[in-house]
Amino acid sequence: TGGGRLAGRRVVITAGPTREPIDPVRYITNHSSGKMGYALAEAARAAGATVTLISGPVSLAAPAGVQVVPVETAEEMLLATSEEVDKGADLFVATAAVADYRPASRAGQKMKKSHESLSLELVRNPDTLATIAAREDAPFTVGFAAETTDVEHYATDKMKRKKLGMIVANDVSAPGIGFNSDDNAVTVFWPGGRQAIGPASKREIATSLIGLIAERMA
Ligand code: PMT
Questions:
Q1: 118-145 pLDDT per residue, tens
Q2: Is residue 116 assigned to a domain?
Q3: Which of 40, 93, 109, 158 has CA 20 to 30 A from 66's CA?
């Protein structure tokens, strides 16, 4: 027993979109399905880790043996992730597609239509990935970067700025990969190296990624 490349390791993963309420019946969100993050949670579990998945609203079943903490907003995601990392974590992987902005205020009642146009004021959301990576007791931290142009440039810049151990660049401009599809293709960057993975199913990509991460952590 105790086999697996992440045996005995505690792993925290964020997945899915966040949902930022405008009023009691409306919200801002994106097309993330959670598939990439759930596949990573499964692969980490299969590698022997104890896995907690901080999940935005998705329609996926909890992977066997994985603790799922459901959240809705970016603020809730940061809070739940911080609480989990407080307990001690060896690895944090941020696959979630977090809304960068939320409505400045949440209307208590359903907003009525009256004027021909309506402006919605948005404010910046907290960045879970940057917050965890900046901790003194930061686990090995892996970010994702969903980009449509100049993928490598933005991804490596993000890795340096946010002080990450690794970044997974996801070109979300190509059809059939990225948001909501079953397949994906990524390029992984770490200080001094890189590797392309896929196109392949998100399950296969997750297994390769966990292998690469375990190598870098060792
Ligand atoms: O969920 P699926 O349908 O399977 O799709 C998978 C995916 C395309 C969503 C996934 O592979 C992916 O690329 N996730 C990152 C999406 C994203 O929004 O990237 P970003 O470039 O905006 O954010 C960069 C990194 O910072 C990400 O690790 C993100 O989780 C993190 N972040 C961003 C903003 C924020 N407020 N908090 C964060 O933690």
A1: 999 999 999 999 999 999 999 999 999 9
A2: no
A3: 158
Predicted pLDDT at 1: 45
Integer-rounded Cα radius of gyration of the chain: 18
Domain residues for 175?
10-100+121-217
Q: Which residue ranges are tagged as binding site for CTP?
A: 100, 110, 144, 158, 162
Identity of the residue numbered 169: A
Nearest CA to ligand 1 atom 16: 97
pLDDT at res. 36: 98
Mean per-residue pLDDT for 96-109?
A: 96
How many domains in the chain? 1
Separation of alpha carbons 50 and 31, rounded Å: 28
Residue recorded with tokens 């979630």:
96
CA of 117 to the centre of ligand 1 (A): 31
Task: Write down the pTM of the prediction.
Answer: 0.97
Q: pLDDT tens across 109-121, in order?
A: 999 888 899 999 9
Domain CATH number, residue 137: 3.40.50.10300
Q: Is 96 in the pocket of ligand 1 (CB under 6 A)?
A: yes
- The pair of three-digit structure tokens given for residue 165, joined into one six-digit string: 């151990």
Contact 56, 15 (CB under 8 A): yes
Helices 202-217 & 35-46, crossing angle to 10 degrees?
Answer: 50
Neighbouring C-alpha atoms within 13 Å toward the C-beta of 48: 12
The answer to whether residue 75 sits within a structural domain is yes
Q: 144, 150, 163: which to mutate for ligand 1, most atoms within 8 A of CB?
A: 144
The Cα–Cα gap between 43 and 20 comes to: 29
